[in-house]
Amino acid sequence: MAADEKNAEEIFKEFKEQSITQFFRKNSQMLGYSGKVRSLTTVIHEYVANSLDACEEAGVFPDISVEVKEISESRHHVTVTDNGPGIPQKHIGKALASILSGTKFHRYLQQRGQQGIGAGGCTLFSAITTGKPIHARSGTGKGSSFECDIAIDIKTNKPLITNMKTVLEDFRGTSVSGEFGDTKYERSDHGVFEYIKRTALSNPHASIRLVEPDGKETVFPRSVNEMPKRPKQTKPHPLGISARDLLDFAHIADSKNVSSFLMESFSRVSAAKIDELKAVADGVNFDKRPRELTWPDAEKVVEAFGKIKWIAPETDSLSVIGAKQMETAMLNIINPQFISVTERKPKIFKGGIPFVVEAGIAYGGDAGKKTEEGTKGTIMRFANKVPLLFDGSVCAITEAVNQIQWKRYGIRDFGDEPISVFVNISSVYIPYNGIGKQAVSQEAEIIEELKLGIMECARKLQIHINKQRSMHVRESRYKTIMRYIGQLSADLSEITGEEPVKIEESLKKIVENKYDMGNDTADEEESDADTGLLEESD
Amino acid sequence: MAADEKNAEEIFKEFKEQSITQFFRKNSQMLGYSGKVRSLTTVIHEYVANSLDACEEAGVFPDISVEVKEISESRHHVTVTDNGPGIPQKHIGKALASILSGTKFHRYLQQRGQQGIGAGGCTLFSAITTGKPIHARSGTGKGSSFECDIAIDIKTNKPLITNMKTVLEDFRGTSVSGEFGDTKYERSDHGVFEYIKRTALSNPHASIRLVEPDGKETVFPRSVNEMPKRPKQTKPHPLGISARDLLDFAHIADSKNVSSFLMESFSRVSAAKIDELKAVADGVNFDKRPRELTWPDAEKVVEAFGKIKWIAPETDSLSVIGAKQMETAMLNIINPQFISVTERKPKIFKGGIPFVVEAGIAYGGDAGKKTEEGTKGTIMRFANKVPLLFDGSVCAITEAVNQIQWKRYGIRDFGDEPISVFVNISSVYIPYNGIGKQAVSQEAEIIEELKLGIMECARKLQIHINKQRSMHVRESRYKTIMRYIGQLSADLSEITGEEPVKIEESLKKIVENKYDMGNDTADEEESDADTGLLEESD
Q1: pTM of this prediction?
Q2: Nearest C-alpha of chain A: how many angstroms from B280?
C-alpha cells in the first residue's frame, strides 16, 4: 500500500445512518421545494390535498379556505382551513410533523395523499427557511377544540409540540398555518391561483376560497351538489400481482391455508377460481400455510393468475370526477366551442391495483393557452383529482399526448391550435416518478391506457372538425351557385318560355335541398377516424 | 353528524408509520427502477459509481469489470468487481443492504454517491423482482477475503446476512453480484453500454471492462496515467449559508464561543474576518456559546456574511475531470472537426457549498447524434463525473443549453447540427431533483453558471464557424476568378502585346495573394461573439 492510500478500516470509520428527515433537510428540492414559486405552490398543494381527503373520508362537502399573506418579498404566511373531521389531539403531532407516517399509505383506498410525507415536509420546509414551528387548530365540532405549535425534530423525525391550549369554542375541522421563506407569490401557470383554479375544476363538489397577498378574495363555488361516491377500501386484483407482492401478503396472513389466503386477500377470487388455479399452478400445495409459500410457489401462482379469466376489478374502490361533472366544469371554466369527455373502464396496474382514466378535449372558444404568438395547445394533468403543475415533460400524461398522431384527428399541430386536453388518472396507488408527486411515471401500460382515453375524445373532435370543414366547403359552393341562379333562370326562361321567377324559385329549391345543412353523409365518407385508431392502438 | 359520516377517531385508528425501505418497496420507480432498460442501467450505475468512489478514496487507479448475463428475456445477472479498498466484514451488510446509511452523505467530500441509498436500492430491487439476496465478496488484499449473501429486511431496513464464508485467497476489492428481474439489455442511448462508454469518457483514469449478455467483451482502457487530485474534506464557505444551516452547525458545535465556532466550522473565516463581521452583525453577542445562538442572531450573521468580502472557496475539495483530460477523451471518443473546452472557477451554492462547471463543445466529424433524419445536436450530461442518461428534460444542464441563443454562435438550429455539448458539474453536494439522481435541479444560480461555461466554449466555436464560412466564400470567389483568368490574359495580351502566359502567371499571383488562406482579418470583422455574450449574460 502506497503512503497516500487509505484502507477500508479508515474509510468505514465514517459509516453512519441518517433519518429520513435529515435526508429531506438536505434534499428538500425532492419534495417540490425548488424555486420560490414552486415552493409556495407545494405548501398549498400539500395542505389542500389533505383537507379534501379528510372531508371526503368523513363524508362532508369540503369548504376550504386558503389565505396567503406576504411577510416580505420572499417570505409568506399561509393558512389553510377546512371543515373536515379534525385531527385527534394525540395524533396531531405525527400527522403534521413526522415523515413517512399517516393514515393513508398502507390502505387500499384511493386518496390524494398516499405517502405520509406531505404535511411533515411543509413543517420541515418552514423550519429550514424560517426556524419557526407551524400552528395548528383542530376540533371535532363536539364542544371544545385545541390549538398548538408543532415543530419537527430533524434528527429523530419526531414532532415537538408546544403551547398546547384548549379553546372553549365549537370548531369542526382543521386549520394549519405557517410561515415559509424562499417563496414567491405570482399568478403564473405554476402559481397558487392556477393550482386552486384547477383544483376547483377537478373537485366541483368543493367550495374553495382564496385570499391572495394583495387582499383579493376569489371564491370558486361548489358547482355540483352531489358528493362524489366515497371510495371503498379494496383488495388487490390478482392480475398485476408479482411473486414478491404475493409473498409479502402471504407472510403476514392469518389464513389457515393458501386457498383461503388467496380468497381473503384478493378481490374476485372465489372457490371456483381456486379450483381453476389449482389445475394450472402445477405442483403448488394449496393446503399448506400461507407463510410456507416459497418464491417458486409464488411465481407459479402468479403465472396461473395470468392464465385464467377474471372479472374486471371492482370500481367502487375508485373515486372519479365523473364524465358529466367534468363536462360541466370544463364548460364553466374553459367555455369552448366543442367538448368531448370520456370515462374509461378500470384497468390493472402492477401490484393488482386498478386505475381509471378520464379524459376530455375542449376545442375552440377559450380552449388552449393564449400567448403573444397565438393560441397554443395545452395539457391539464390531474392525478386523483389533484392538479399536476410541474415536471410535465417527464409525465406519462404528456408522453401520451405527444405520442398521439394528432394529424389523424384533424389537428395539424397540437402546439398551435386552440385545444385543451384534460386528463385525470384515479387509483389507490398512483406511481409518481418523484416524492414531489408532480408527474406520473412513464410506465408502458399506463401510457397506453391514457392514449386510448384521449384518442376516444379525439375521434369525436375529428368528426366535429370534419363537419365544420365540409360545412364551410358546402357553404361556399352554395353561395357560388346562388350567385349564378339569376342569370341561369333568365337564360332558361328564354329557351323554355317559362317565367324567370318561377324557374329561379325551383332552381333555388333544388340547390337548397342539395346543400341542406342537416345532411351528414359527406362527413361519414370523409372520416377515417376508426381506421386511425386501429392503426394506432396496434 | 349524518349516518354515513366518519369521525376523526375512526379515521385515525389507521394511523401508522412505515420504514424508508417499505416506502421504496412501493415506490421503486423513484429510485430509477422504472422501465426495463432503465432499471438495468440503474443497477450498473449504482455499483460502478460506488466502485469508482472507493478506488478514488483509497487512492488507487480503478480497474472495474462489469458483466451482464441474460437469465431470461427480462431477467439478468449482474457482477461488478473493483480493485478498491474492500468493505470490512462488519460493515458489509449495512453498506449493501440498508437505506440511508453509508460513509458519504454526512461528509463535506466530493463523491459520486451522496445519499446512502444506491446499493441498498439494488438489493431491494433484486428482492422485489427475484426474491433473491445479492452476493458479495470483499477483501483488503491482506490474506483472506470473505463472501456472503445479503438480503434486506423491508420492514426494519436492516441487512440479513447468510452463508458468510472466509475465502483463503488474496483478493483486494469488492465484487457484488445479483439477479434482477423486470430488466432488458439493449444497446440504446439509455442502455448499459452507453452508460459505461460515457463513464469512461468522464473517468479517463479508470479502466473499465464490459461483458455483454452475448459474450462480447469491450475494454475501455485507461487513457490518462495520472490520478485525479483526491478531493479533500472541506468546510462550508460562509456565502450560501442560511440561518438554518448556521444554527444546525452551532447547535452541535463544541467551540467555546460564537467567534471560535465560526472560525472552526467555516472556511475562509479568520480572526480579522470575525472583527469585520462583529462590526456589521449588529447586536449579536460573539462571546456567547454557539448553542445559545437564536434564529434572529443567525439571520443577522448570515446577512453580515453577505456584506463583507470573501476569498473564493478552496478548490481542493473538488475533483474535476480537467480541461486537458476532457479534451483528450472527447477527441478519442467523438473525433470531431472542432473542439473547445473550459473549466470554470468555483462558485457557491446554497449551504456554502462550492461547485465547478466544466464544459466542452465538439463540432463536425462524429459530433452530434447520427439518426435517419440526419445528425442531431446532443447533450452529454455528467455530475461528479457520473453520466446522467435519464430525465434530461427536467435537468438544469438541458435547460442551460436550451436557454442559449445558439444563432448568435453560428448554430442555426441546435437540434439539427453536428454538435455535442459536454457538461460536468462537480460538487460536494449536487442538488439532484430526485432520488434516482438523473437530473440536476433547476436552481437559478446553477443554470446561470452552466450557461456561462457553455457560452465560453460557444464563442470559440463561433470563431471557428465564421472562419470556415468566410474561407468557403473566399474559396468560391477564388475559383470563379481563376476560371476567367485565361480569357482575361488573352484579351490583355491583344491590347498590350505581352505574352498571354506571362500575363496569366502574374494575374494568378495577384489573385492567390489576395485570397491567401492564412489571412484572417475578414473573420475578426464579422465576429460579434463578445457582444453576444454581454447581451445574454445581462
Answers
A1: 0.84
A2: 21
